[in-house]
Amino acid sequence: MVEATGGGAAWLDYDRDGLLDLYLCQGGNPATEARDTEPLDQLFRQVHPGLFVSSADAAAIVERQYSQGVSVADFDDDGFDDLYVTNVGPNTLLKNQGDGTYQDVSLIAGVDNKLWSTSSGWADLDGDGDLDLYVCNYVDYDPYHPLPCGSDGKPGTCHPMHVKAVPDECYINRGDGTFTAESQSRGLYGPENKGLGVVIADLNNDGLPDVYVANDTTPNFLFINQGQGQFVESANLLGCAVNRDGHPQASMGVALGDYDRNGWLDLYVTHFTRESNTLYKNLGTTGFQDVTGLVGLHAPTLKKLAFGGVMADFNQDGHEDIFVTNGHVDDWRHKGDDYRMEAQLFSYEGPRFVECTTTAGEFFTRKLIGRGVAQGDFDNDGDWDLAVVHQNSPVAILRNVSERGNWLKVRCIAKGNRRGVGTRVVLHQDDRYLTQELAGGVSYCAGHESSLIFGLGGNSSPVSLDIRWPDGTRQTLNGVQVNRELILRQDIEGTAPSQANNTCVDEIGSPRQGD
Amino acid sequence: MVQGSSDQTIGTTQGQLVLIPAAECSLSAGAPLRSPTPRQLKRIAGLALIVFGVTACAVLAGWMWHSSRRDAIAALSRQCKKLSVQERWADLATASAEWSRLEPGLADPWLFRAEAAKELKDWNTVVASLDRVPRTDSRCPNALVQKAAAEFEFLNRPLDGVKTCDELLAIEPRVLIAHKQTVFFHAMTLQRAEMVRRIRQAIRVRRESPESYVYLVSASWLYGGSVYRHNTRWLEGDPDNETYQVARALQVYGTQAKTDPEHAAEFEHIPPAEELLKKYPHNLEVVAYFLNRSITDGELERVQELLQLIPKDQAEGDARFWRARAWCEDTAGNVEQAEASLRRAFQLDPYWWQIHFQLHDLMRRRGKLEESAKFLEIYKASKDLSTTIMSLNQSIDALDEQKFCHSLLELSKLVGDDEVSQVLSERLSPD
Lengths: 515, 431
Hints:
By secondary structure, chain A is mainly β. Chain A has helices at residues 106-109, 183-186; strands spanning 9-12, 21-24, 42-48, 51-54, 67-73, 82-87, 92-96, 102-104, 117-123, 132-137, 169-173, 179-181, 195-201, 210-215, 221-227, 230-233, 254-257, 266-269, 278-284, 287-290, 306-312, 321-326, 344-348, 353-355, 370-376, 385-390, 396-398, 406-413, 424-429, 432-437, 440-441, 446-447, 451-457, 463-468, 474-480, 484-489, 505-509. Mean pLDDT of chain A is 92; it is low at 493-504 and 509-515. Among the domains of chain B are: 281-339, no CATH class; 350-431, no CATH class. Chain B has a two-stranded antiparallel ribbon. Chain B starts with 7 loop residues before the first strand and ends with a helix.
């Protein structure tokens, strides 16, 4: 059963050379007695624009567990990207030592969650300035003693309702390299929790990160941050636990964006076949509304089993689009489901999304078993590219060659949180506002590049930026020129990131808090 | 008109005057009396004797005939009882037929005749015989129960079975099996409003079966595990029946069996849903199916078109159509109207979890948080019950009745259904 879920990827710049590198999880045999011979997770260093070299060995990464996903954070704020790898079995926290190598600090840090974990995400959940970790745990399943869920009584992929749920975990960063598991005391706990996807972002615009968890076949959770690191589960009360009809769905991954540009972040949750993926429009203070059918997204995804999803403005027309990778968890061809499936792309044409899969490129004609999707601008040209992980097929690196509009890329280096997780930027250009946030988690088992890219369509006029840093400090920049990358620093202390080669990079230090 | 004359009476027939001899007129009036001659007296005495003799003979013959008939009936009665005990069904059939010919107004011969026919699997005779049991006989209710069973089970004439049950319930409203059978039939044929009416009727006389609560809770959404099987059978006896055709097809669409390669061939004869709509554009169930689909697909215009297809009187009483109206109104931004429509749907079907959820959702979006929370609570309870029902798959026997009824009692209180909460409280009370 564990074979069904895995396959994660994360973009990071572990060597800080300005070029994105890529971490990829590996599977192998989940029930082997000889784990030492199992395939290792891979780290590909981008040594030249567009040229990646396998570097796990050089980086001293020895991750042989049956991996599921990966997330990236500079948890110790030393300026270097660390990695958290989720596994079927003990998870691994790999600390970047700043010399091109990693060290496994899972045990010392106390985050070696031994359950079957899937997605994970980082954010400052308790408001103390450092990054905490949320880990989705799926179900209680021992691959060494598989359940006979196959049609012929042999081991197979079980329906989640036949397997016991295990609760997710939240690790609070104590600031000394160690963490404590505090999900229950923090209110980050709910019944029948079969977590597969997580996104951590400010979903109610109160300035605090909230946690949304996609559960498989049970209602999703939305933990609303009450401050002081306390949360209250409110998904039902806010309309994003179940779909429009009141059905809990088999939720997998979550994409985050503001497709309707109302300043409130929306959620796009991916699902099983015969259930469409669901778009929860964030209405504001009253919560969410499932508008999937109304925006034309119901029928196109009914035959797909989706995992990773990304909401981003790929063609930079000013509206966020949706990318989804698909692939079944089992061979259900006898039931009419495809096993391998094409990925899908939807363009927002207001007020509806239009599927543009067939014109999106050759990749979209391939039938694959897609899982994690990570977005990153690996070629530094100012638009989003994608790394898409497939089971039993090579990862796909999708370079974005869309005809596109004007743009602005923003990187945020927050105080105590160099990847800027939790930073929200509202771009104002003429009469439109575009809202984006550097969220924790997002997609499925994946880690995105920690940047924001705004698509501006045909409008190249200067923009204003309202920045809200993770600690609540606000900053406004006016007259910002577009079609370039902008690096914002909340704290002038520390080390600035390297400049990318082929983009115009402006680095702007922000006033200190209270200025 | 009678006029006096010496020896003739003048009468009229069809407007004509006719002469009637006085001797033939026994009640001639006004004629003078004369003493009969001895010859005449002798003649009269002879005639009287003859009349007496004939009458006596007739009486005697009548007495003898009656006596012999009574003997024959008594013999047939004894014979039938004996043959029944001896299980000599063919002989019983003959004897009871003879007896029922002699005494058609009596229940016994018909009951014997039905018994014999039943054993001989002659179901038409069973039904015909049981139908002759006088309605005033105390055994009539039981006879009608058996008749209905034969019609449902063996003759495959469910409509006749329903008619028989109705006749039975008119005589004795507290016959559990009659309620059960008619509720089941209307559930399987997706005649939802009639099903609910009958469930309520049974509840009022405290003769509801546990499964009727399952049907009540799922009145607006259940397609039932065995709908296909039952309607297929009923269609064998009534191939053009629209209700059966629709129910069967909808169950296939609902389970997506038609698109499942493992079973697609099995359901090849079921027309595609669009064809069914073309064939029965005003069928409540067909339109409701398409309404649900179109709402999910977010097709506002299509939903509005479909709403026009159903006669107003039918749509007015169906929660699904009010839900569809609410969706249209909500989509168009008329949230006040949407709320009113959802509330109407809630009145019509207080147990439909989707309505509870949508009321919760709409109230939340309208900022009516207290009401939203109330409907959320109701939704959670009704959703739990619906999940239980869905997990029954094809066998209602798997239902934990006690647990289900306890949950339903709580839900009925939440939705304010006093009738159901009252009866369930009685049933579940420890006394």
